[in-house]
Amino acid sequence: MSKYWSELAKRLEPYVPGEQPKDKKYIKLNTNENPYPPSPKVLEAIRKASNDDLRLYPDPDCDLLREAASDYYGLKKEQIFAGNGSDELLAFAFAAFFDNGNPVFFPDITYTFYEVYCNFFNITPKLIPLDENFNVPVDEFLKPNGGIVLANPNAPTGKYLDLSAIRKILEHNTERAVIIDEAYIDFGGESAISLINMYPNLMIMHTLSKSRSLAGLRVGFALGSEEMIEGIKRVKNSFNSYTVDRIAMAAASEAMKDREYFDKTRNMVIQTREKTTEKLIKMGFNVLPSKANFIFVSHPVYQGAQLYRELRNKGILVRYFNKPRIDNFLRITIGTDEDMNALINALDNIIN
User: What is the domain extent for residue 22?
Assistant: First the structure.
């Protein structure tokens, strides 16, 4: 620990992303990336945007991108904020809507960045335990709180909370911000976007990293009432006025417009997920029902850590969390059919 660090830097426990080893070529099923390339229209937009205009700052309001998102989501442009990936947007939201001393509710098993943000912004977290089947106990989120954050589908479990439950939470929390992180919603769930105009305290986070194959570009959207969007903008313009660059803006706009390619590739991921789930269940694995581009699995005999190590030795990366209640599970990203067949064969070799 450096003597030059601030007290904030000393107390931080940073988020740990999935490993990105470079010692050899792996089948990467550990970071929930899309196995398919971006739309060809996206790549063409990147080529066109790589011109002399890069000497100029991008539009700080991201109007081109927000207009494309407005057309896709059926929301007013003023209800949409574009940023440098949903992680950045979540950081802005924690700063904009949550206060020190008022506990923010989120599940005990969820995206670990939420707890990191609480630490960074000196916000008190209250972790609500999922039940024994990893379901969200909705009634626990109806108690007094300083705000709510829910990943839906949840990560790393992949389990989905239906809109009736989201609506119930919103109806009992009208005075606090409710953030629904829908990073994986395009792989099977129903978005809560239809509730935005009914609940002014609702904010929804979307990312183009997963279902639109743009993890390397870093673009996301915050969706909500104009009042909520204005809160995000105030925070953003206190950090960095230019969060989305020209190339990312052009590429992301085309990604939102190319619905045919989007539907084709996400449906391929969904089909592969279901086929892989069936195969793993037949092999004796417990596989939680998933609406995401990953599955959460365990085996009654072989421990998660052991399976993780042996798969890594065979050139296949999956995500292992050495944490209470989930330390026997692996989170496995859905790759191509070929990737998943390699996984099945490797697991069959390990357990047999």
Answer: 7-37+260-351
72 within a domain of the structure (yes/no): yes
**Final residue before a domain boundary, out of 205, 226, 258:** 258
Locate 352 and state its tokens. Answer: 């047999």
Shared-domain flag, residues 101 and 167: yes
**Residues 137-183 pLDDT 10s:** 999 999 999 999 999 999 999 999 999 999 999 999 999 999 999 99
In angstroms, the CA 130 to CA 109 distance is 7
- Cβ neighbours of 103 (radius 10 Å): 16
Of the three residues 226, 258, 290, the one that is the final residue of a domain is 258
What are the start-end ranges of the E strands in the chain? 27-28, 80-83, 104-107, 125-128, 148-151, 178-181, 202-207, 220-224, 286-287, 294-298, 316-317, 319-320, 329-333
Distance from C-alpha of 247 to C-alpha of 252, rounded to nearest angstrom: 8
Provide the whole-model pTM: 0.96
Contact 283, 152 (CB under 8 A): no
Residues 227 and 160 in one domain: yes
What phi, psi does 325 have (nearest 5°)? 80, -25
| Separation in Å, CA 302 to CA 27, 64, 76, 181, 294 | 21, 51, 51, 32, 20
For 252, residues 6+ apart whose C-beta sits below 8 A from its C-beta are 42, 65, 68, 82, 208, 212, 214, 217, 219, 244
d(CA 247, CA 312): 35
- Tell me how far apart the alpha carbons of residues 291 and 232 are, in angstroms, rounded to a whole number: 28
Q: Does residue 223 share a domain with residue 80?
A: yes
Q: Summarize pLDDT for 295-347 with one digit per residue, the tens.
A: 999 999 999 999 999 999 999 999 999 999 999 999 999 999 999 999 999 99
